[in-house]
């Protein structure tokens, strides 16, 4: 069994930050690169082939950073089940009512989990509802605990924000409790 120490910090641009913060910074940078490529493609600045090559090169790294953030966040807050690569109805049904089955930290920005214009980092949790088949995502500032967000967090309503946190089938998305 591998043990990960979440207490150590790393030096980043002459500032000490946590591994989760470092990974989040890198994730945001990759997301901005992909967004920039999309905008340049849409304006006719690069070909569709070059844009697709950018996506093929960047998206796997985005996925890896998000998975690493999820693993570290889950370990830090004792959430034992992480975001599945793709949430299906079968997987959703396996979770007990009220179970927090995924958590993460994203920047409070248009590239991350945009909730307001105050910047910073947002911690989100995905929770199975008390009904056997519904679920929702709640969020708040990253300094709040998973338990606090579960009880008092703001429900994520925007479809893009929901899908940034948890990828899922259309069938599962229809079960999201708005």
Query: Which strand order spans the largest sheet, edge to edge or round the barrel?
Result: 3-4-5-6
How many domains make up the coordinates? 2
First-last Cα distance: 39 Å
Strand composition percent = 15-25%
Order of helices and strands: EEHHHEEEHEHH
Strands, count: 6
Quick recap of the structure?
It contains six helices and six strands. By secondary structure, it is an alpha+beta fold.
For the structure shown, list the relevant keywords.
disordered N terminus, single chain, alpha+beta, 6 strands, four-stranded antiparallel β-sheet, 178 residues
Tell me what you see in this structure:
- By secondary structure, the chain is an alpha+beta fold.
- It has 2 domains: 16-76; 89-173, no CATH class.
- The chain is 43% helix and 17% strand.
- It is built from 6 helices and 6 strands; from the N terminus they run E-E-H-H-H-E-E-E-H-E-H-H.
- The strands form 2 sheets. The protein has a 4-stranded antiparallel beta sheet with strand order 3-4-5-6. It has a two-stranded antiparallel sheet with strand order 1-2.
- A hairpin with a 6-residue loop joins strand 4 and strand 5 (135-141).
- The longest helix has 29 residues, at 48-76.
- It is globular and about 50 Å long.
- Residues 1-7 and 77-85 have low confidence and may be disordered.
Q: What is the secondary structure topology, with strand pairs?
A:
Elements: E1 10-12, E2 15-17, H1 19-42, H2 48-76, H3 89-94, E3 100-107, E4 121-128, E5 135-141, H4 146-152, E6 154-155, H5 159-165, H6 170-173
Antiparallel strand pairs: 1-2, 3-4, 4-5, 5-6
